[in-house]
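JOB MANIFEST
job_type = single_chain_structure
chain_count = 1
residues = 737
[input]
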Amino acid sequence: MNKVVEKGIMVHSFQEARGMSGVKGLGGKVVDDFSSKVGLPEVLEVVETIDADHRQMARCSSRTDQQYDSISGVVRLFLSGGLKRSVPQIVPSNSFYHIPHLRNELFAGRNKVLIELESLFFVKKCRKLAILGLGGVGKTQVALEFAYRVRDSRPDYSVFWVLAQSQATFEQSYAELAKVLQIPGEEDPKMLVKRHLDSAKAGKWLMIIDNADDHEALFRSNDPAGMVRYLPQSDHGLILFTTRLREVAVDVATNNVMVTEESVKELVKELTYLPLAIVQAASYINKNMMSVEKYIGLLRENEQNAINLLGRDFYDDTLGFPRAVSRTWTVSFERIRQQSAVAASILSYIACLDPKAIPQSLLPTQKSEVNLEEAIGVLLGYAFLTRRENSTMFDMHRLVHIAIRAWLQDDSLKQMRADAITHLSSVLSYEDLLDNELWAEYMPHALRLLQESRNCQTKERYELSCNVGAPSAYIRNGQTKDAIKMFEHIIDIRRKRSDEDNYILLVAELELAMAYCEAKQVEEAIGIFDHIIPIVKRTLAKDDPFGIVAQSSCARAYLAANRVREAIALYEYIRGYLTEIVAEDNDILLTAEYGLSEAYACNKQLREAIEMLEHVRTCRKKAWGEDGEDMLRLEYYLGSLYGVNGQPKEAIPIFQHVVAVHKRTLPEEHRHRLEPERALAMAYYEYGKFEDAIEILDRVIAILLTTGRDEDVLAAAKEMLRMAHERRGGLFTSPVC
């Protein structure tokens, strides 16, 4: 160790940043922080933190792995400087330090950026670098951490900090530097500092020029007050700038410009890499001293915010006058209107749809296909539409979509919505929507149009609602209340125009009843079922699919309302005639039989419920397989019925199968895994296999204590564990919360 210190050998080691997860008994770091240190002086030893746990240290999937970049980058830098370095802390040093900010002990991340700075300065021998980014994203913190790292690891370098926020702060920084460097003379401190650092006697140095955001103050070519005039130049000197302005970054560092912050990348992506929008965003953020995250939040919050932001003027240095993104796009929209009326009409029509995944088949028909393709070509040429590769599907960027809607204004947009409703109601039919793939393509556009035209009470809108099954789509999207309102409106109109046995009216009434069930409004649902079931039995054949679905849904509603005997009677009626006309593995028949087993169980007819469910289980295995999630849910219910019926021996193998599959497919804390395990423990207990029950319950309780959820379940598990220990005849110690 003495030889290492004497010869000034530099040691660079790595440590893990994250604790272990997913390994039983290991919840933190395997080794302590800085355990890799060998106790050398700070200048001789650097410990690098790697974003990995103990298993991942020095294990990289490929050369493109981010960890490989981090580790190899440090190693390359280490080797490039040689194993022997001078040690100014051990020998007298002529280095000076002027860093007015304290080190941020909470600084984390950005390791890749710091390594890149080190590489550019000390390996690639760049003399000037610039960190570019919007305000509030951490440019100064990166520069500060880099300054302290250079001070600690390269003691032959002096480190200076200059604040270039204004001419006054620049002059103040240089005056302080003159004192730190102990430069004699009565001249302007700026010139004294420059002359000293230009000379070889100043040695090696790093200067941070922070907040260089005023291009005019930096580059006053004919003004002695211009800051760049006083920036030192030396073969031994390095300068790192931080700035918000790309113009400044490029002028001071040419191509050596780094954009470090993830939020900026997110913003640029949100603006779809549109240069004008990016420049406007930067101008707005700088002017209002706003963080990038705040700007992104405003942009995404609602459409009006986006319109306001896009309409804000910013000064264009290139053209010499104010501009706004929306105004620029408006000029393009007007040019399209002059160039192609068809393209303009398509543009306006798309403003009423969802901007993503627009099928060409939904676009308004034209006199010829040539006219349509030419119009699409115009919009693609302006980049207002993009065509998905090898498809007839188009996308429009959200901001362009918003700008078009603002361009159309309220009156024009209302008229366009009315026209779009008329077109869609003629294009889409109920039969089309039976095709799930077609439904997935059309529904986002139909729903958006219907949602935004609620005040448009026209025949076409009503027909569109009926034809495309929009209320059903609301249910699929979890918008049950909206679906109910729409169904009620449709039915009200249909009843005025149709007889009570009109098939379309019956479909709408059934859909409304099912929506009521989804919303837990069971009594309202039953009221509709009591009205339509007699009509179904009177007007439709026994094997009509609609009639079967209606009666099965009614039976389920009876069961939900605890009208168990009525549910059993209706399920038995349905099963009776279905067994005569369909195979035993028919999906509708098996669904009815499953419902009947539930009804039997509610009526405490457990033997009949189990017998029915065993039959369903046997038939379902052919389609679902043994390990499918639907089969596992069925088996869990079947095992529970055996348990309630006092048949733990029959329940155990069923629960064992469910638990074994979930052990392979679900994390140990998943609720769907814990419930069958607890049920298996109960079956073991009832069957007298107390050791097996205790083993499972210990694990379940440990997980519940860790996750801190389901207090009632935890209490029940503890009580069962206590009873199992008691029945086994051993001592029981309650798990500590």
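[summary]
The longest strand covers residues 157-163.
The longest helix spans residues 398-427.
exit_status = 0
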